[in-house]
């Protein structure tokens, strides 16, 4: 399965600023996903990023707040813009990959822990 | 009603116990069922993957899907302290329907 890394692993930011999170995969993948994981809540899909097309955002998430880039098949970024304390969360990147002949399924990066003061 | 319901725990068991983790769901279109394990301060790790109804076994782990009851389970035999983690169920509608719906996760602690 794909090996996924994220940068930064954690950050503390001031409200009103922006943070860009990077996701790097060690193999080419078509679909990459960005999730948010808040304490006591399930993973929530923010958007799907396919290379060469605009990201598709889920209900409740907008491009102005969470702009996404997908310049190639191994890399994506998520920016959390104009941050407020409510944006404090873990942000996870995942990719769709095939493992040992199984149906494609999703594999996750280690996450970025964001605290907004 | 949430699409996927999962008891958040925490669940504490002695080492060697059999652990049963469960999720219920409401969407009959779900065809693929996954269990992820998430250690503290780590990303979710795919543990088990099942298509449609039935059982699947992998070492000490067994995943069961009962589509008629909209109920899935993960059993851990001979539980170890290293199994202490949060277990997340996830499900999707299948090929071409990539969106995963996750449960909130069950925190498991296996006591040595």
Helix content of chain A: under 10%
| Strand content bin of chain A | over 45%
- Largest sheet properties of chain A: 7 strands, mixed
Treating each run of at least 4 consecutive H or I residues as one helix, how many helices of chain B? Answer: 0
Mean pLDDT of chain A: 91
**Mean of all residue-level pLDDT scores of chain B:** 92
Taking pLDDT < 50 over at least 5 consecutive residues as the criterion, the unreliable ranges of chain B are none
Structural class of chain A: mainly beta
Question: Major sheet of chain B, described briefly?
Answer: 6 strands, mixed
Helix content percent band of chain B:
under 10%
Overall shape of chain B: it is globular
Number of extended strands of chain A? 11
Rg for CA atoms of chain B: 13 Å
Entry summary:
The complex is a heterodimer of chains A (117) and B (112). Chain A is mainly beta. Chain A is 0% helix and 51% strand.
Please outline the helices and strands.
The complex is a heterodimer of chains A (117) and B (112).
Chain A: E1 4-7, E2 10-13, E3 19-25, E4 31-37, E5 44-50, E6 56-57, E7 68-72, E8 75-80, E9 89-97, E10 105-108, E11 112-116
Parallel strand pairs in A: 2-11
Antiparallel strand pairs in A: 1-3, 3-8, 4-5, 4-9, 5-6, 7-8, 9-10, 9-11
Chain B: E1 4-6, E2 11-14, E3 19-25, E4 32-38, E5 45-51, E6 54-58, E7 61-66, E8 71-76, E9 85-92, E10 101-102, E11 106-111
Parallel strand pairs in B: 2-11
Antiparallel strand pairs in B: 1-3, 3-8, 4-5, 4-9, 6-7, 7-8, 9-10, 9-11
């Amino acid at each position: 399965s794909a090996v996924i890394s994220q940068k930064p692993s954690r950050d503390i930011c001031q409200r009103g600023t922006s943070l860009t999170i990077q996701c790097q995969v060690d193999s080419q993948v078509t679909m990459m996903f960005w999730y948010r994981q808040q304490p006591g809540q399930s993973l929530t899909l923010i958007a799907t990023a396919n290379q060469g097309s605009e990201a598709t955002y889920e209900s409740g998430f907008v491009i102005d707040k969470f702009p996404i880039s997908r310049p190639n098949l191994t890399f994506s970024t998520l920016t959390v813009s104009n941050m407020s304390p409510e944006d404090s969360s873990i942000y996870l990147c995942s990719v769709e990959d095939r493992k040992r002949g199984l149906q494609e399924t999703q594999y996750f990066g280690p996450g970025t822990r964001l605290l907004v003061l | 009603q949430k699409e996927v319901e999962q008891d958040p725990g925490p669940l504490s068991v002695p080492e060697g116990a059999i652990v049963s983790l469960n999720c219920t769901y409401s969407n009959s279109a779900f065809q693929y069922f996954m269990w992820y394990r998430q250690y503290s301060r780590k990303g979710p790790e795919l543990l088990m993957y099942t298509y449609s109804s039935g059982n699947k076994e992998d070492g000490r782990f067994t995943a069961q899907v009962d589509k008629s009851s909209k109920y899935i389970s993960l059993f851990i035999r001979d539980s170890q302290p290293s199994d202490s983690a949060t277990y997340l169920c996830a499900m999707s509608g299948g090929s071409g329907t990539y969106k995963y719906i996750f449960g909130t996760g069950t925190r498991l602690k296996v006591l040595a």
